[in-house]
User: Which sequence fits this backbone?
């Protein structure tokens, strides 16, 4: 059946239903519903197939978006799943957590009239295909006998393992945590990404021949030396785990928490990995101030709300327009009752035996900094104290080179990011010819989809290095 050329005018964008704020804050589950086959086909049919697929170019992994939308419109689910996996190792996860408004959907020709709901359809494809029994097609893979160690089971490591397995190279993925996913599991809260989705991905990868060795920290439980000697090549996807602090007084007062330990404690509690309530950071009944306006800040806001905080305020030093957090997550935070305080710069965390508040000063935006973002300037005489009995610091993360890098000729830049080749035929190769790297440890804190991209590209380089490509 041929498509009506103006279908996008007749069929408006329709997203799966979102649970009402007052209900969803009562639990930690995902908040969006799902398309059925008819919804997905109808929404996919809105794609104009505009000939110049800006969506595809803007997508960091260059997904074949118009092509899989077309397959879904025709009801060819398994073909769409196979095609979706040609460019992305975690499509059902990217469909959930990518900031589509800044990437594919922001570039959609229909943007002004309601972009095609690419993220929701991407999520539908793998969710539904797996439910119906689809598994990645490995029938043409020929085993090469090569073995590669992948250190880090985050998006970068999983992207690398996926491509290596498809190249006939046996990947053994090590991670310090008891579950795979890196920040997908121990960072991003379950209301954005159900952890069963990550576990399902583990099963898919194991079905492709990927081996996981968890609860194992390389450099402590196994020396890196042994890994380099035992494998044909190594991929590092270690992430960034050094917390950025504000450098002001009171940051070490009891009741002040770094964002990640707070989020991890909550996940450990939800997953039953830590059953000792003494270890939990529980903000029930507390007046909470979250410092920072990025996605991590939004996740802390919404986790604190779900824990039953008496109030949650989020202070950010620029205005709303300049906030780095995704629009979707800022809107979700607001709906869930978070009180935003824009143009407020923290000066000090105040208290005695424990925190009692945050001293902030108002700001206005001045000249742009070297990154082009307008610098916040403080307005004298506008100091105030925001009362708080818990404060969460969500200022981001910096790469933290492992102490064993230097012993193995793996060079880091002054920023702490690992130096990799950006040109030539083996991008993502470190200064040690046998070791490759990608994800947050190479580019600094970024996105799931960019980490997947780098892991995949590094794996292609490894295949070239091993002479199998
Ligand atoms: C709170 C939070 C929310 C976020 N929300 C989003 C979002 O909504 N959308 C989005 O696109 N991005 C989001 N991000 C960013 C995204 O999660 C990261 O960019 C991405 O996970 C980076 O992937 P990675 O594989 O490089 O590192 P990670 O995900 O950090 O994985 C690194 C893994 O390496 C392991 N490891 C480290 N050292 C060793 C060692 N020596 N031995 C064994 N294992 C080791 C770690 O245990 C970890 O599992 C968020 C980040 C945070 C912190």
Assistant:
């Amino acid at each position: 059946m041929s498509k009506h050329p103006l279908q996008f005018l007749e069929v408006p964008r329709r997203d799966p239903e979102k649970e009402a704020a007052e209900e969803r804050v009562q639990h930690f589950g995902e908040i969006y519903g799902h398309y059925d086959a008819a919804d997905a086909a109808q929404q996919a049919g809105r794609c104009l197939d505009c000939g110049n697929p800006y969506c595809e170019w803007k997508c960091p992994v260059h997904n074949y978006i118009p092509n899989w939308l077309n397959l879904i419109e025709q009801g060819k689910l398994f073909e769409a799943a196979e095609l979706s996996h040609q460019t992305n190792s975690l499509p059902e996860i990217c469909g959930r957590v990518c900031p589509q408004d800044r990437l594919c959907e922001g570039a959609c020709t229909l943007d002004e009239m309601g972009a095609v709901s690419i993220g929701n359809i991407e999520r539908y494809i793998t969710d539904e295909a797996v439910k119906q029994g689809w598994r990645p097609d490995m029938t043409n893979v020929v085993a090469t006998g090569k073995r590669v160690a992948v250190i880090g089971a985050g998006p970068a490591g999983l992207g690398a393992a996926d491509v290596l397995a498809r190249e006939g190279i046996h990947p053994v993925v090590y991670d310090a945590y008891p579950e795979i996913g890196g920040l997908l599991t121990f960072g991003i809260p379950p209301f954005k990404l159900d952890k069963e989705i990550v576990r399902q991905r583990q099963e898919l990868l194991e079905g492709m021949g990927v081996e996981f060795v968890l609860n194992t920290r390389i450099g402590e439980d196994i020396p890196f030396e042994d890994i380099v000697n035992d494998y044909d090549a190594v991929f590092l996807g270690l992430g960034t785990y050094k917390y950025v602090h504000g450098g002001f007084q009171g940051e070490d007062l009891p009741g002040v928490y770094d964002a990640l330990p707070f989020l991890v404690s909550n996940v450990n509690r939800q997953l039953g990995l830590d059953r000792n309530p003494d270890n939990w950071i529980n903000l029930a009944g507390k007046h909470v101030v979250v410092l920072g306006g990025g996605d991590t800040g939004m996740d802390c806001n919404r986790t604190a709300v779900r824990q039953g905080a008496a109030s949650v305020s989020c202070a950010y030093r620029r205005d709303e327009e300049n906030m780095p957090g995704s629009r979707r997550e800022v809107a979700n935070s607001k709906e869930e009752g978070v009180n935003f305080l824009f143009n407020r710069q923290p000066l000090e965390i105040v208290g005695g035996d424990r925190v009692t508040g945050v001293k902030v000063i108002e700001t206005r935006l001045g000249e742009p900094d070297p990154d082009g973002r307008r610098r916040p300037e403080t307005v004298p005489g506008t100091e105030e104290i925001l009362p708080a009995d818990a404060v969460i610091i969500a200022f981001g993360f910096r790469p933290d080179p492992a102490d064993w890098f230097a012993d193995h000729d793996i060079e880091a830049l002054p920023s702490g990011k690992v130096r990799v080749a950006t040109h030539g035929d083996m991008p993502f190769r470190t200064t040690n010819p046998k070791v490759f790297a990608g994800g947050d440890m190479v580019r600094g804190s970024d996105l799931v989809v960019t980490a997947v991209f780098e892991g995949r590209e590094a794996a292609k380089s490894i295949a070239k290095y091993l002479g199998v490509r």
In short: The chain has a mean pLDDT of 95. Residues 97-98, 151-157, 174-177, 182-183, 187-188, 192, 217-219, 237-239, 263, 295-296, 299, 439-440, 445-449, 451 surround flavin-adenine dinucleotide (CB under 6 Å). DSSP finds 17 helices and 16 strands in the chain. The longest strand covers residues 355-368.
